[in-house]
Amino acid sequence: MAHMMADEVWVRGSGAVAMAAALALGRRGLRVALAMREPAAGRASDLRTYALNEASVALLHTLRVWDALAADARTEVLDMRVEGDAAGAALVFSAWRSGIERLAWIVDAGELEAALRAAVRFAPHVQVRGADAAPGAGVALTVHAEGRDAASRRGLGVEMPVHAYGQRGVAARLVADRPHAGMARQWFRSPDVLALLPFDRPQPGCSYGVVWSLPDERAAALLALPPADFEQALADATGGAAGTLRLAGDRAAWPLALAQADPVCGPGWVLLGDAAHLVHPLAGQGLNLGLADVVALDEVIAAREPWRPIGDERLLRRYARRRAGPTAAMGQLTDGLLRLFAADEPWARELRNRGLALVDQFPPLKRWLGAAARGA
Ligand SMILES: Cc1cc2nc3c(=O)[nH]c(=O)nc-3n(C[C@H](O)[C@H](O)[C@H](O)COP(=O)(O)OP(=O)(O)OC[C@H]3O[C@@H](n4cnc5c(N)ncnc54)[C@H](O)[C@@H]3O)c2cc1C
């Protein structure tokens, strides 16, 4: 029986990436211990809705988590409209025109974590331990997935300089007076970025998850507004494009930053997810990157030479090399877009708005951008 034998892999972390890593490595037949915190009793569920790409959804399917999500906890994005800060400057993506079923899925963050928690409890090769449990002598590989504040980085000699954007991402759930029809909308309005993600909770077909990134003081002010004033601020920012929007519950905010850990592996250990990298959520890619880390680690371990131990540093460097390019590219893309849209100079305004219109009229580049966002 698995619990009678020594653990081979020790996974630390309580979020989606740690749980997905434990499940993926357990499916390989490795004996995995997941040292995690239980969610605090009475803690409100995460208000965020995550945009997940094809690759993330494929992983969740393999881990038998995707089908465990309630139908109204995952909504397809069929179209997406990205607007700049000049009239008519827009970039439109359509699943139908691209010949694909959907552009992305929008998923309830709290429900996703709950489905992963249920899956790890039933996984035959995964033992759930408390966060304070100590790894046994048989552990060959420790996977660190404790999120952005991972304390273990210090002891491992990992540097992770954080570039704080001085912005917060305000998230809430909304209900509109007209159907979303699977349309995601995003506005780049120097320096704010506002995204409305189509969702089916609480009202099927007419709900949205909102992520509004804006400077710290403005975010604090928005959180403090009475609901009716917040709704008015949304109406002003969206111009009513999605209909009249009403708040459906609480609001919360997260500090936003760009960071990359170095190194991301060493003898017998590896970093995954937000413990390894942070990106601005304007492209909805942080968790997608973390789940891609899981896939890469799992595949590198599966493809190792039979004589090579799973904690071998040369093996783990294959994981690091595989993830370095895509993670750096996403950090640069989100950071570059944010800077371009935050600049007030007329040349920057001209460039970004012409850029949107140009990309919109240049199908190959548009296709490439769409495929990159889908993780295809
Ligand atoms: C406003 C906003 C919107 C976003 N939208 C999207 C989106 O649309 N799409 C997308 O892909 N990404 C999105 N992201 C990014 C996404 O939230 C993160 O990338 C993702 O949550 C990272 O998962 P993780 O498991 O690595 O870390 P976390 O979710 O931070 O989980 C780590 C967990 O480990 C716990 N922990 C810490 N120390 C220990 C320990 N010693 N032992 C055990 N547990 C420990 C922490 O308390 C935490 O619960 C968004 C982020 C924000 C802020």
| Strand composition percent | 25-35%
Radius of gyration: 21 Å
* Rounded average pLDDT: 92
Secondary structure: helix percent: 25-40%
Q: What is the highest CATH level, the class of the domain at 2-70 and 109-162 and 258-342? A: Alpha Beta
Following the backbone from N to C, one meets helices and strands in this order, namely: EHEEHEEEHEHEEHEEEEHHEEEEHHHH
Question: How many DSSP E strands?
Answer: 17
Report the major sheet.
Answer: 8 strands, mixed
CATH architecture of the domain at 2-70 and 109-162 and 258-342: 3-Layer(bba) Sandwich
- Taking the alpha carbons of the first and last residues, their distance comes to 39 Å
CATH superfamily of the domain at 2-70 and 109-162 and 258-342: FAD/NAD(P)-binding domain
Low-confidence stretches: none
Total of DSSP H or I helical runs spanning 4+ residues: 11
Shape: globular
CATH topology of the domain at 2-70 and 109-162 and 258-342: FAD/NAD(P)-binding domain
Ligand types: flavin-adenine dinucleotide
What structural class results from the helix and strand content? alpha/beta
Task: Provide a descriptive summary of the structure in words.
This protein is an alpha/beta fold and 376 residues long. The chain has a domain at 2-70 and 109-162 and 258-342: FAD/NAD(P)-binding domain. The protein has eleven helices and 17 strands. It has helices at 16-27, 54-62, 95-98, 109-122, 152-156, 216-224, 227-238, 286-302, 313-342, 346-360, 363-374, and strands at 9-12, 32-36, 49-52, 74-77, 79-83, 90-94, 104-108, 126-130, 141-144, 162-176, 183-189, 192-199, 207-215, 245-260, 265-266, 269-271, 277-278. The protein has an eight-stranded mixed beta sheet. The chain has a six-stranded mixed beta sheet with strand order 8-2-1-9-16-15. β11 (183-189) and β12 form a beta hairpin. The structure holds flavin-adenine dinucleotide. Flavin-adenine dinucleotide is lined by residues 12-18, 35-37, 48, 50-51, 131, 145-148, 169, 171, 211, 254, 273-275, 281, 284-288, 290.
